[in-house]
Amino acid sequence: MRALLVVNPQATSTTAAGRDVLAHALASELKLDVLQTQYRGHAAEATASAVRAGVELVIAHGGDGTVNEVVNGLLEASPPCGDPHSGPQQPLLAVVPGGSANVFARALGLPKDPLEATSAVLRALAEQRSRTVGLGKADDRWFTFNAGLGWDADVVAAVERARAHGHEASPIRYARTALRHYLAQMRHPADLTVELVGEGTLSEVRLALICNTDPWTYLGSRPVRTNPGCNFADGLALFGLTSLSPSTVLPVLREILRKEGDPSGPNVLRRDKLPLIRVSSPTPVALQVDGDYLGERSEVEFLAVPSALRVVV
């Protein structure tokens, strides 16, 4: 089987020695090419090119940002596998976690350790095991587990800037950054309008998260759960807040950090199994997908795409 291993050498929990070991293990079973990413967007470009050249398997080794780029490159070159007019069978995706959160890899049930995950991938390939998963699209950008507008996207953007200056993207940095941007949002809250199929328009929403699985992120080992039960097969889930007052936010934070968290309340907006969500704002607000900041938008359409991707598990 022809395979491409896409490696992010800057990923949080990878080392040169570890990457060499797992590449050697994969090369013993596959006709393997290895690409080390050099700039943002490189993984998507290389994946699309490799798929067009006939690669049958793409292995993403890095954090969720690397996985997102690989998925976008793969689906650019090969349409969702649920499309009856897709032609040749879509290449497989495999994930070897190497970041700090590794949400998509955890949702697939893969081990956190890269070498253990590599062994699990090779076993699945030997046994010809794979599954299809549904994904989300934010306009033209695919996402695997989460997208958001407002407060959380502001936090992602700030942490990305800190990483660019050599700072670690630790849970403590995320918490401090979230508090700083919460205080800013209290003074100048987002004014989002959410449109749902069959339900009309919901106005004065201060935060909108769109989830494709549960949990959608982690603080260290602690899962963050806004939409319990959300999964890759049932469309998208919406979590929103219509107030950012401490009396709303503090109970919600406590609940979403509980092991069996199930947030609710008068200012909590939750919907599950949605095929389409439109979010707009009179002024541009920050957008993130899978933990990557994509700039500011005045309107975004989020679409659920069932059976979009073939994944080795």
Structural write-up:
With 313 residues, the protein is an alpha+beta fold. The protein has helices at residues 16-27, 42-52, 64-77, 103-107, 114-126, 151-164, 171-187, 246-256, and strands at residues 2-7, 31-36, 57-62, 92-97, 130-138, 141-143, 146-149, 192-196, 200-205, 207-211, 217-219, 222-224, 236-241, 268-274, 276-289, 292-312. Helix 2 packs parallel to helix 3.
In short:
The chain is an alpha+beta fold and 313 residues long.
Q: Give the N-to-C terminal Cα separation.
A: 17 Å
Mean of residue pLDDT? 93
User: Which CATH C-level class of the largest domain is it?
Assistant: Mainly Beta
Name the quaternary structure.
single chain
> Can you summarize the main beta sheet?
10 strands, antiparallel
CATH architecture verdict of the largest domain = Sandwich
Give the overall shape, derived from the CA principal axes: globular
Number of strands: 16
Task: Show the helix and strand layout.
Elements: E1 2-7, H1 16-27, E2 31-36, H2 42-52, E3 57-62, H3 64-77, E4 92-97, H4 103-107, H5 114-126, E5 130-138, E6 141-143, E7 146-149, H6 151-164, H7 171-187, E8 192-196, E9 200-205, E10 207-211, E11 217-219, E12 222-224, E13 236-241, H8 246-256, E14 268-274, E15 276-289, E16 292-312
Parallel strand pairs: 1-2, 1-3, 3-4
Antiparallel strand pairs: 5-6, 5-16, 7-10, 7-15, 8-9, 8-15, 10-13, 11-12, 13-14, 15-16
